[in-house]
Amino acid sequence: MGKTADLTTVQKMTIDTLKKEGKTQKVIAKEVGCSQSSVSKHINREAKGRKRCGRKECTSKRDKRALVRIVKQNRFKNVGEIHKEWTVAGVSASRSTTHRRMQDMGFSCRIPRVKPLLNKRQRQKRLAWAQDKKDWTAAEWSKVMFSDESKFCISFGNQGPRVWRKTGEAQNPRCLKSSVKFPQSVMVWGAMSSAAVGPLCFLRSRVNAAVYQEVLEHFMLPATDQLYGGDDFIFQHDLAPAHSAKSTSTWFKDHGIPLLDWPANSPDLNPIENLWGIVKRKMRDARPNNAEELKATIKATWALITPEECNRLVDSMPRRIAAAIQAKGAATKY
């Protein structure tokens, strides 16, 4: 950032558009994500009609259109694969040039978002549910206890710190990252309201209806006293088999606990999913060696969740519903 040559084609076009709208250079720099001097140099260069000096580009507009088609055919290819296909198409360019052209056209390499796969019927039900709840206020959502299970692993995938080492130190024990083929993991049940989180339950076996009802008896009921006292509340859970079993429905009727109707395959509508994400991000630097240390880390991190975080997540429900309606029942960014 700072040199005009560093600006991408997309950034330059954005600067020109914002300049025509009468925006100041300071505002333009903030919106484009570059320095104010870069904006000033680009505007002055355009005003004087000067072109960028240096070697002429080795790729034509036709070559760039071919590159766009290759990228859009499969957005999960790496630069090497895209460069190989571009070369086969008759373009003579290096791998680094391929990467630069992709950046110039606005393509960036990012971790893909994960969204649930929804069929047409599920989208219709989600849309109907969202339209039914669109007038609910934040106060009404504060009466809902959200619950869910989540899996925590000792190994957090390929996310982790890099290591600084010299030539010949690849096998140095201080430079090695331990890994296991089947990392230990624990399944956790938790619940939250707009005020706080409830107690955690570590599940030792596969969750069937009987196991789930024990969790409700020994953890959900105490959580209601902790989060709501004697006030009325509505319980939320998804449509997992253990949750939707007839015996589980009978358990809720016997205890007089009302249930919030919930659309299938809709984790993006549940704020506790975001809470699990917050907990896992806070645990990113932790390195538990076994399941017991992992449980202790999860408990300690869960205890650090503040009422403000819970309230902010539950307050997002009207926005989640509006997003679901706008997407016509499709999965949303949440």
List the helices and strands and how they pair.
Elements (H helix, E strand, L loop, with lengths): L8 H12 L4 H8 L3 H13 L12 H13 L5 H10 L6 H10 L15 H14 L4 H4 L2 E10 L31 E8 L8 E3 L5 H20 L5 E3 L4 H4 L1 H9 L16 H12 L8 H13 L3 H9 L1 H10 L8
Parallel strand pairs: 1-4
Antiparallel strand pairs: 1-2, 2-3
Helix pairs in contact: 1-2, 2-3, 7-15, 12-14
GO molecular function, one term: DNA binding
Protein name: Transposase
InterPro entries: Homeodomain-like_sf, RNaseH_sf, Tc1-like_DDE_dom, Transpos_IS630-like, Transposase_5, Transposase_Tc1-like, WH-like_DNA-bd_sf
In brief, what are we looking at here?
With 334 residues, this protein is α+β, with helices and mostly antiparallel strands. It has helices at residues 9-20, 25-32, 36-48, 61-73, 79-88, 95-104, 120-133, 138-141, 209-228, 241-244, 246-254, 271-282, 291-303, 307-315, 317-326, and strands at 144-153, 185-192, 201-203, 234-236.
Describe the structure.
It comes from Gadus morhua (Atlantic cod). Pfam families: DDE_3 (PF13358), HTH_Tnp_Tc3_2 (PF01498). 20% of the residues are buried. The chain has a four-stranded mixed β-sheet with strand order 3-2-1-4. It is built from 15 helices and four strands. A hairpin with an 8-residue loop joins strand 2 and strand 3. Helix content is 48%, strand content 7%. By secondary structure, the chain is α+β, with helices and mostly antiparallel strands.
